[in-house]
Amino acid sequence: RVARLLAKGRNFTEEDKLLLRDVELEILRRVIPEYREAVERGQIEVSTSPFYHPILPLLCDSDVYQRTHPGARRPREVFRRPEDASLQLERAIALHERMFGSRPTGLWPSEGSVSDEMVPLVAGAGFTWMATDEEILARSLGRGLGRDEHGHCVEPETLYAPYRVGRETTVSCGFRDHTLSDLIGFTYSGWDAQVAADDFVARLVEGGRRYRERTGGEDATIFVILDGENAWEHYAGQGRPFLRALYGRLASHSELASVTMSEACASPEAVLSPISAGSWINGDFYIWIGHDDDRRAWSQLADARRALDHAAPRLTPDQHATAFEELLIAEGSDWYWWYGDDHSSEHDLAFDEL
Fold it and tell me: Whole-prediction pTM value?
């Protein structure tokens, strides 16, 4: 059907457009079942994120920003709604169960955002692992992990292992190798696919060897984490040539084994408590609460949240549910991403209006 449209080349009819839409929908409807089948045969693991993509630590307490920016200006009213953070997790779990037929065991907190206050909520929701950036690990330990002139981590024994976070939880945490992850996210798109795959595998092997040398022969667990959608539009073939080259090398390499996050985080030996509050972007929350526009938005959100509480006795269940849903949506991180002077797009006015 598509081949016939390509052969036609021009003068498309409304019927042609509907035909193409039918083909697109057929393909899209196969996506979730494909992932579900891969999960069922143990080939992949699918994690989830808080439902409307909020920054959980800021929902728990917007003053958490003060830990990395002491003395910074605050919103007019502090936002503290850990119950909303829990609900965002519950919503995510429910959708995951509906899509994949099982509860998720792993959480990628929105933007890798973590704090001590959100860890018990993650544990209480039944997650066994979560993940964030190596900068959070470094700040939690109170020291830099360091890189040599080739970008290799000089403390692989510290970075390349899972940690149990919170002394009274069973949640494990993996910390992504920032350099390796960003090579895929921002650099390799400009390289030949085969050369990029070779370079990445060589870096994995070198990191594993250094880890074994410093631990008496133990195996490293190297966490590579990046936004699932952002990189591939910049690659030739939407990343397929690179991924095929990389997966082929990983599958056949004698020193490397690919594991799921649950497998990687199954037996943490070290405990990390407290965990530094921050995200995978500069190890803090500046983007979402560091500007006057951000703080105004948090104040307005607090006003609206309180107003709904006060109005609740006078609302029907449907009215309350509709209003509360809008508040949960307004807690999403992307509104705050676009406020302030560090990010802008042609849709800024639409974001403000929404």
Answer: 0.94
